[in-house]
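tool=predict chain=A
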Amino acid sequence: MSSSPHSLPSWLVRGMADLFPTGDPADADQALAARLADAEQHNRPLRIKLGIDPTGSDIHLGHSILFRKLRAFQDAGHTAVLIIGDFTARIGDPTGKSTTRVQLTKEQVEANATTYLKQLGQGQPKDSALLDFETPGRLEVRRNSEWLEELDLPQVIALLGTATVGQMLAKDDFSKRYGSGSPIALHEFLYPLLQGYDSVAVDADVELGGTDQKFNVAMGRDLQRHFDQRTQFGMLLPILVGLDGVQKMSKSLANTVGLEEDPLSMYSKLEKVGDAAINDYVTLLTDLDLETLPENPREKQKVMALAVTASRYGQAVALKAQADAATLVGGGGDAGADVPEASLAEVNFPAKAFYLLSAVGICASSSEARRQIKGGAARLEGEKLTDPNQEFASAAELEGKVLQLGKKTFRRLVG
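tool=predict ok
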């Protein structure tokens, strides 16, 4: 889709929370629409930067918002520059942290990076992948160790000379820690500078980030200016609220939906997203038009959950997950349902109910399992478990049955 110097295409503005700068609409250095038009006129794809620090092994739907926007730029003919922060991850982004992050080893970071790329679609057909790894010229995967490991001490000192302590302390996270007396290690000041230098190294036109990344993205603009480069635009996208409907989606808060979750679990979790968050989920995780969706929140939940699941697994699989969820939540242990399995091989029998839930991984601990059973959240073949000490004599007694926790988690027990 073409863009005039004064307007942005709908695929680009969907879900966008912030864009900077927004100056003279005819100036390609001040208005993204003008730079898009200039790129089209000169047949020069824009370079869209997204940096990820692989500090964990799993990508969840909250992360996918940025990758979806990056894919939209790819599909519009631009070049996605995906930077694996294998060097910066060893420092750790201080954004949102109240203490100094634990530094990872090079080997830990590389192992995480490998799983990230697989989840993003490396080696998969573009139609079923989150990013397009197939089309020539649409994706560059770079590791920032390529250039950051080459910086010598004089260059690092020069880089430090481009910012002041006052600027760093103006960053909200540093300001809070400084005000509360929490330690700030000097190497943490390096993170936004090194991340900003990535924009110089790849000659970025646009950098994508969450709304919590504005300081780091702006630092990239400052450093491009310092090195006499054309400065990038910063495009910020919202932070997705987790399944609890309150806090941001985060694995540490146990409110996530992982990209690699099985279809039934993905659909079942999404179908229960709170009413207040549904529109954001639709806007940020699907291409659905809000105006065409049912007004009834329950029906809107189902449409959203189906669309997100289908985007990962295809429509047929998503419809099967929807049907299975309806059957299982209704109390049936349908033997034909595609339910993820949980092995009984490591369970020591006879086994009490609270131990079983913990041993097969449906609860994080025996104490949590006791609480869930007492709260009425656990079911076996649709029948509520009421006694944490209910005993099962052998694996044969449970083989093939569906163990359920709440309305989102199901496991078929296998020997």
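The first strand starts at residue 18 and ends at 20. The longest helix spans residues 186-202.
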